[in-house]
Amino acid sequence: MEITLKINGVEKKLNVEPRTLLAHAIRDAGLTGTHIGCDSSSCGVCTVVLDGKTAVKSCTMFAVMAEGHEITTIEGMAQGGKLHPLQQAFYDQHGLQCGYCTPGMIMAAHVLLQHNPNPTEEEIRFGLSGNLCRCTGYQNIVKAVQQAAQMLQQPAGAAADD
Amino acid sequence: MKLEYSGQEKVQASAEKVWSFIQDPQKVASCLPDLKSVEFKDDKNMVATVGVAVGPVRGSFKFNIELDPRPEENKMMVRIRGGGLGSAVDLTASADISGQEDQSTLLDWNGVASVSGPAATVGGRVLDAQAKRLIETVFANMGKKMSEV
Amino acid sequence: MAVETPNLEPKGIQGLGKAIKRKEDPRFIVGKGNYLDDINLPGMLHMALVHSPYAHAKILNIDTSEALKIPGVKAVITSKDLAAAGLSWIPTLAGDKQMVLADGKVLYQYQEVAAVYAETRQAAADGAAAVQVEYEPLPVVVDPYKATAPDAPVLREDIKGNMTGAHGPRRHDNHIWTWDVGSKDETEKALAASEVRIKQHMVYPRSHPAPLEPCGCIGDMNKATGRLTVYMTTQAPHAIRTVLSLVTGIPENNIRVISPDIGGGFGNKVPVYPGYVCAIVGSIVLGAPVKWVETRTENLTTTGFARDFHMDIEIGATKDGKVTAMKVYTLADHGAFDAAADPSKYPAGLFSICTGSYDFQKAYAEVDAVYTNKAPGGVAYRCSFRVTEASYLIERSMDVLAHELKMDPAELRLKNFIQPSQFPYPSALGWTYDSGDYEKTLKVALGRIGYAELRKEQAEKRAKGELMGIGISTFTEIVGAGPSKDFDILGIKMFDGAEIRVHPSGSAIVRAGTRHQGQGHETTWAQIVSEELGLDVDKIIVEEGDTDTAPYGLGTYASRSTPTAGGAMALGARRIREKAKKIAAHLLEVGEGDVEWVDKKFVVKGVPGKSVTMNEVAFAAYTNLPPGMEPGLETTYYYDPPNLTFPHGAYICVVDIDKGTGEVKVRRFVAIDDCGTIINPMIVEGQVHGGLTEGFAMAFMQEIAFDEQGNNLSSNFTDYLLPTALETPKWETGHTVTPSPHHPIGAKGVGESPTVGSPAAFVNAVVDALAHLGVRHIDMPITREKVWKVLRQAGVDSF
Amino acid sequence: MIPAAFEYKRPMSLEEAISHLAEHGYDARVLAGGQSLIPAMRYRLAQPSVLVDINKLPNLGYLHEENGMLRIGALVRDTDVEFNKNIQSKYHLISDVSMVVADPIVRFRGTVVGSLCHNDPSGDWAAAAIAARAQMVIQGKNGSRVESIDQFLVDSFATSIGEGEMAVEARFPTPNSLTSGAYEKIERKVGDYATAAAAVQIELNPDGTIKEAGIGITAVAHMALRVVEGENLLRGQKPTLELIRAAAEEVRKIADPNPDARGSAEYKKDMARVLVGRGLIKALRRLNVVVA
């Protein structure tokens, strides 16, 4: 069936089966930053943002269910040639190694910061506990989210000048 | 995973009637819950397709069923092998059949099932209680139908 | 497409010891990594596999007719089809052979039985579900101790009665090999003469590396050119190309293996798996590219497991705590095929490092490997070939001994360390340790964590009935395989290569035979070259993973990249510098003997103002050469290390235990590592964080478990437990530096130290917390229930 | 992994949804959050032939208090509950539960009502609903009915919802100032099903004795259970550690867990006991009553 998905502000007409997972639909549309890592909704590497404030595991949602919603993926985070503070912070704090969990982790952190702009370390660990990372041991990811939280609270313009 | 069950069913029918019932594949097949299709190979063997709903697990299982009556031991053996959903089930059930003075018959049954594949590795957490219920249903159905004969 | 990221690269000359940010990160943080599943080729087909639900069964019939009826399904192959191409069995790295698709019988649950090729991934999956296989179940062997019982069913009928294997005699059809090292008689004598002896049985359970990106492969046979391109999640592309050439008969220069970005490997992506072979065969047969990407279930149930060592140790010591001798017997469960990824000469890997950091005069180790109905493997999961098992064994045993002697475990260790003056130290089991200062590292760790105060606190708490434990591990690793005199895989010597090309404008491209999976080679190799050649780090590009362009090398695993390719990089750069010096002399119009390399420039001796930079030399190498000199500035260097390197560390863990539930909470963990010279401290710290987390996972969560029918009970991430940010403790890291005397830059490798060294620290801490209740050992993973059992048996109960 | 094909229905009204369910009966499943169903479908362990996606139904996302009840519509996500300030301050038990269901990302999709309808033997919401004495609203072709949670939860994976019906709302009584609760759960890691878990709710009389007690346990039997005898012991008594111990001990008599990788039957039973005890202590502490 034909559906229209709005991904990163761009409307895309896609031909999918009802059983097509949102993750596959996004990836087949050329946005391969969203990864797939398990069959059981456990790892979170497929996490995308739905309607700005909701994080979902896109391999535990059918693409047809996303019709009429706004989807943001990692490719939609940098704006105007400028990294999102979370991307900058993951880079600055060595918050990634193999990079496979990174997009999902950034999207989960993005939603976390919208609901809690100034989280404690414990709150960050709690909020990211739906996303697995096999490389970093999470410590630098936590630091990155703390840095991003600070950057996002600074007035615009000052944020990126580290 | 290995599952073991046992139970007792009291049937309002004579031992004779019970014996004739359980040696008839057609009658036994009619006791299987949610039977979708059945093919009788001979007087002891059949292939049955059964709908299975175990919580989130829903699908069809295809079973080779072999009836092995042992009247001299007052024992009925049933061997079931088959599977579905990429999984396999091997079940051996036996029932001791004893006629009672009040013209009823007691079925003392036990079953040992071995489950392999995703149904065990993924669905194992929820399988046990449901499989038990399934087997109980079969014997309850048998009891009911035998009494009606 | 325009570059979406601002230029984030670190700038300028950035040599050893600089914590510069990673050059590979910009693409990953914007979602532009290029992992295997991101690659799509025109006309590409998708492959799905049919798996056995049984762990051991005869295959009576395979009916593919229903599958072939599904729209989009192109073909289904079984072992018979592979046999026609001579590919129904392939050699393993350990000298055994393994089925590609089940040949007559299945030997472990989820074994691959058929491959389905289709136009879409949906059709492929539907096709796989529609293949009907009829099985006759056979008795299953799950327990390795029962594998060699006289009445055990024969698993490998293909080698039944063949009592000589790749590593010597077999004494049972399910026995693979026996391997031993050291002097048995002398060790037994020394043990018998010891004042104190301890014995302990311990299991290092079966586990799986489980990188978040599963394995995958795209076979792309171009029938017009006869060239086979294989995209594969592999940590060792060159070795894979050689193996592929050997098994398919396609000349090696007609095979190109490309290993794109890899989403974590940890040893999982070293071997050749049946899925890879089927994707390649499918492409050859169907003339179209074929993609196969594992499901997580396939990853955890069929690809290389790790560990599964069942160990018995005996240690002798004097009453005052000086160790005298050690004897080890190990039963290794290798699953259905011996597919361990070890160097050829070492079927039990480098397990003989099990004397650890201690000066054992006598030692003997013996390992038996057996077949069981489990997936094949024995990969080096974030460790140097069985070092993890060895390290756990000795570090756990030292605590058992300390307990027996009623001695503080730190004191016992300090009493038995190999001393700095003893290096190079020949161990009783045949290794020559390069360098180390164990006492210094332990003392740094003890100071950092406040050991004396913690012991005081523990005593106070114990008096109040509260449970707290402190665990120490002072491990030694053995990495960097390896010197060609000892190390090969399938006959290929385990050197590694580096190619450095300096362009006229002073930029460079650097290639290596290794393949990183998150370790940061694109940054650290650039740093080595920047250090050695004085080039700007932002002008150095590092490329790995394409066999058409990269120099030959054995790949990245077993912490070998820095010891081997890192050495090649440094020595290759120095070779370039030699030539550059000649060009510099020409430019400076002095004799070569008057030029020296100072502060990353060529200067005329005694004339500090008179100098040329490497950039200027590079330009001259293409424009203004000394007469008769070959133009260009590049080299390929193959480095055959003279010895292995021996990183070490001291880890200390503090735990608190919940008396009601048995829950163990890691309160603190201090890790002091000594990996010799540090190239990039930020990357080293990141590696340590990650490795400690995997060690924590082993100690408390991760296990591939089986039931009696051979069902894999850890077939997905809901049952194979990887810690999240919430469970993972906070790590405190630090280091001491004892350079390797033989490595070109003194580096030793660090990626695996924390996985190797930490499990014993966690377990030691838990046992220490419970020691007064009579506990001497608890096998991993330490679940709440295991602790609860101890507590309730001791009458401890609490809400 | 790819689910088997199915027919997809996306009703725009409750009536339409119910007519689809009535038409397809056994073959149809309601798709709300999908967080249990979709993974089971990916393993092809669930192969429903029709999915009725209720996510576009109007007016089922409400979460508000009315007539002494917190009303939770069928499309209220776990996170809606988790982030709700009123719930955090007043509904201690529900707030506790909302933080430990599955994992934080799954909670953005998972629904409270869906979880209750699924009635997984390890479900968190079922235990909470038992302890809080919740009610369910079930809609059929001919109107709706309200059932107590005890009537609603029938067996593992079975509820009193008939074919052609769906649950549209869960109702939790609004706690007064003398009521508090707690949820205590042991899981091997975030996202795992509970090894054992206990939900408790306590209402005190002004004199400090216990007016009403609710205890639900999960993951330790074929379905979530009410610890009736434990509740009976507590009712009317002054809370003491002894009393709590005795009430918790009642768990052992009804828990009948399956041994699995999460633990042996004995361990799970004992944990359910410990967790009931801890839950009671925590709930009382929240009412400023310290018993331990």
List the helices and strands and how they pair.
The complex is a heterotetramer of chains A (162), B (149), C (799) and D (292).
Chain A: E1 2-7, E2 10-15, H1 22-28, E3 47-50, E4 54-57, E5 70-72, H2 85-92, H3 102-115, H4 121-127, H5 139-153
Parallel strand pairs in A: 1-5
Antiparallel strand pairs in A: 1-2, 3-4, 3-5
Chain C: H1 25-29, E1 45-51, E2 57-63, H2 65-69, E3 73-77, H3 79-84, E4 89-91, E5 97-99, E6 105-106, E7 112-118, H4 121-130, E8 132-137, H5 144-147, E9 164-165, E10 168-169, E11 175-182, H6 184-192, E12 196-204, E13 216-222, E14 227-232, H7 237-248, E15 255-258, H8 274-286, E16 290-293, H9 296-302, E17 309-317, E18 323-333, E19 362-370, H10 387-405, H11 409-416, E20 425-426, E21 432-433, H12 438-449, H13 451-463, E22 467-473, E23 488-489, E24 492-493, E25 496-502, E26 508-512, H14 521-533, E27 540-544, H15 562-588, E28 595-598, E29 601-604, E30 607-612, H16 614-623, E31 634-639, E32 648-657, E33 664-674, H17 681-700, E34 732-735, H18 753-770, H19 784-793
Parallel strand pairs in C: 1-16, 14-15, 18-19, 26-27, 33-34
Antiparallel strand pairs in C: 1-7, 2-6, 2-8, 3-7, 4-5, 9-10, 11-19, 12-17, 13-14, 13-16, 17-18, 20-21, 22-32, 23-24, 25-26, 25-31, 28-29, 29-30, 32-33
Helix pairs in contact in C: 10-18, 14-15, 15-16, 17-18
Chain D: E1 7-9, H1 14-24, E2 28-31, H2 37-42, E3 50-53, E4 63-66, E5 69-73, H3 78-82, H4 85-90, H5 92-98, H6 112-118, H7 124-132, E6 135-140, E7 143-148, H8 149-152, E8 153-155, E9 158-159, E10 166-173, E11 179-186, E12 196-204, E13 210-218, E14 225-226, H9 228-234, H10 241-254, H11 265-286
Parallel strand pairs in D: 1-3, 2-3
Antiparallel strand pairs in D: 4-5, 5-10, 6-7, 6-10, 8-9, 11-12, 12-13, 13-14
Rounded Rg of chain D: 19 Å
Question: Which spans of chain D have pLDDT < 50 for at least 5 consecutive residues?
Answer: none
SS element count, helices of chain D: 11
Average pLDDT of chain C, rounded to a whole number, is 96
For the termini of chain D, the CA-CA separation is 50 Å
Low-confidence spans of chain C: pLDDT under 50, at least 5 residues?
A: none
Assign the structural class of chain C, choosing from mainly alpha, mainly beta, alpha/beta, alpha+beta, or little secondary structure. alpha+beta
Q: List the secondary-structure elements of chain D in sequence, H or E.
A: EHEHEEEHHHHHEEHEEEEEEEHHH
- The averaged pLDDT of chain D comes out at 96
Number of strands of chain C: 34
| Number of contiguous helices of chain C | 19
What fraction strand of chain C? 15-25%
Strand order of the largest sheet of chain D: 4-5-10-6-7
Class from helix and strand fractions of chain D: alpha+beta
